[in-house]
Amino acid sequence: MNVIVIGPKGKMGRLITQIAAEREDMKLVGGVGPAGREYIGQDLGSVAGVGYPLNVSVVDQLEEIIDTCDVLIDFSTKEMALEVLQKAVDHKKAFVCGTTGFSPEEMQKFQEASQQIPVLYAANTSKLVNVMNRLLEIAAVAIGNETDIEIIEMHDRWKKDAPSGTSKEMGEVLAEAMGRELADVAVFGREGESLREENTIGYHSLRMGDTPSSHIVTFGGFGERLEISHHSYNFQCFASGACDCAAFLADQAPGYYTVKDAIKF
Predict the structure, then answer these.
(1) Is 26 annotated as a binding residue?
(2) Could you give phi then psi for residue 68, rounded to 5 degrees?
(3) Is 155 one of the annotated active-site residues of the chain?
(4) Whole-angstrom Cα distance, residue 136 to residue 134?
């Protein structure tokens, strides 16, 4: 399968390019960066730090190379991702997106696009995070209505959106398992004097240093508490998962897919 990586100079784009370059089932046919960047026109392998040339260039106009690919992988910015999504629809190309920070209205564009092309959107492409979501669902069904649920998420100082897309997804898993809507029960941080409202899900976002990603969900009872957590040491797990998602999506019919469809467990 032929792959184009959007944003190959970014922290995720670099890793995705490096991992895809080593996979026998993938061929990198190009990278796309923002217009005007100094690395436009350079070899993709050099830009992404692969260690050897890939004999394809990084361009700033996706239309120049989009017809050479089967799947587009995008972990860039939400503005760039929305542009790529439209071009994927125009050229009928499968699209994997791991960019976060979209509004509900923007997410609706992904749903609409999935009527014409295969779309896989994932706030987190780690297999272990998605196993954690399954555990959260089990815990929420069993004890969600008798405990206080708090979500603590940690990321590096450069992450723009808060709470993280992964923690929002976790909150949705919890809320759905308890028959609620996350928008009705989420509480973001606390200040002042007031009792904790029952049946709410608390959110706390930490941004510090170069912390890759940590998510801790606590079910607080009386005399005991349960914690389910995931900690990444670097971003390689997300890049590997993104490539697995792309490999899955290449053979799918138009539709809206998630990591649970692509990564079997």
Answers:
(1) no
(2) -90, -5
(3) yes
(4) 5
Residue 11, annotated as binding a ligand:
yes
Instruction: Extract the tokens encoding 38.
Output: 């100094």
Is 99 assigned to a binding site? yes
Out of 155, 168, 215, 230, the active site residue is 155
Q: Residue 4, CB half-sphere, CA atoms under 13 Å: how many? A: 27
Classified by CATH at the fold level, domain 127-232 comes out as Dihydrodipicolinate Reductase; domain 2 (3.30.360)
The predicted-structure confidence for 198-242, as pLDDT tens digits, reads as follows 999 999 999 999 988 999 999 999 999 999 999 999 889 999 999
Pairing state of beta strands 225-232 and 213-220?
Answer: antiparallel
Write the pLDDT tens digit of every residue in 88-128: 999 999 999 999 889 999 999 999 999 999 999 998 899 99
Give the CATH fold of the 2-121+236-262 domain.
Answer: Rossmann fold (3.40.50)
* Selected catalytic residue, list 27, 78, 109, 159: 159
17 is in an annotated binding site: no
* pTM higher than 0.85: no
